[in-house]
Structure formats: C-alpha cells, structure tokens
Amino acid sequence: MSGRGRRRILTPDEVRIWRAVADTVTPLPGRAVEGTGDEVETPPAEPAPAPPPPAIPPARPSKTPMPARPLPDLRSGVTPGLDKRSSERMKRGEMEIDGRLDLHGMTQDVAHAALVGFVSRAYDGGRRCLLVITGKGYREGTGVLRANVPRWLNQSPCRERILGFSTARPQHGGEGALYVLIKRRR
Predict the structure, then answer these.
(1) How many domains is the chain partitioned into structurally?
(2) DSSP H helical ranges for the chain
(3) Per residue in 82-119, pLDDT tens?
(4) Residue 29 belongs to what domain range?
(5) According to the model, what pLDDT value does residue 118 have?
C-alpha cells in the first residue's frame, strides 16, 4: 500500500499471523518498536465544525422593482419593439383612442401625478392607445407641460409601461397632444 489511502482493518486470522511473524524479529538498535498489529484502526475523527460564516444583514426589499436591464429613452415617433405597421398606425392617428387626459391649466406637480396615475390605470385596465393633451403653452416656443411630458414618460413608472409616444394628428390636438402606446400586460 502506498500510504496515501486508508489502511484496511486486519481480519482476526491476519492478526494471528502477524503476531507470529513479529515475535521472531528483534528491533534495530535505537529504533522503537512500532505496533504489534493488535491495534484496530479507528475511523478518522470527525472534523471540527467550521466556524459559522460572518453574519450578513438580510437584504431589504426594494420599494420599486428594478427592471432587468435599463430601458432606452423614447423619442416622439420612435417606437423600438413595435412592428412597423402598428407604429405607422399610431403616428397617423388610426388607432382607437382608449383614454384621454387633458393637462390644460394644471401645475407641473399636479400634471405629473395625473399622468403617472393615468398611465398606470390604463396599463392595469388593458388599454392600448392614449391621448395626452398638453396644450402648446402661452408663450412662443414650447409650453412647460409640452416639454416635460415626454421626459416624464421616460421616467419610472411610466417607462416600464409604454412602448412609445408620438405627436398627435391635427384633429386630435396636433403639437399640443401626444399619442401614448401602452404595453400589453404579460
């Protein structure tokens, strides 16, 4: 045996033979007598239990679920993940409008809360196409709500629930309104 593995236990007959042979020899000078063969090999001792790993504080659940991967920002008229035909139908105002939200006269805080609630309810209710009316603003250029609504749609929780948005057709408000396409629930 090479000494690396476990030694086997001798049978009683082998122990008797070993004793007979061991009685006929004398140890070399300065050497101690090893065993007589009477020993019964004991199984190896149980290893000491490993110290417990350092305590890790339990993870606190997040208040809002994190998306698996960040969603790209949407731009008006650009609808990644939507087939070309549906995208064109939305841009041309040919999709049936399932809900309308008019933000005229609202402050930014009130309008933002109304938009988030409207998109969430539409998503939960299985609605598909929404019309969000921002108005064009009082001053030349762009109104505050008209500029902020696309940014709000790209923020959580709206972004996880929409496929895209596009400027509305003139009969639905033109540059002062947006079509918002809601994802289907899975």
Answers:
(1) 2
(2) 12-22, 84-91, 108-124, 144-153
(3) 767 777 777 777 788 889 999 988 899 999 999 999 99
(4) 9-41
(5) 93
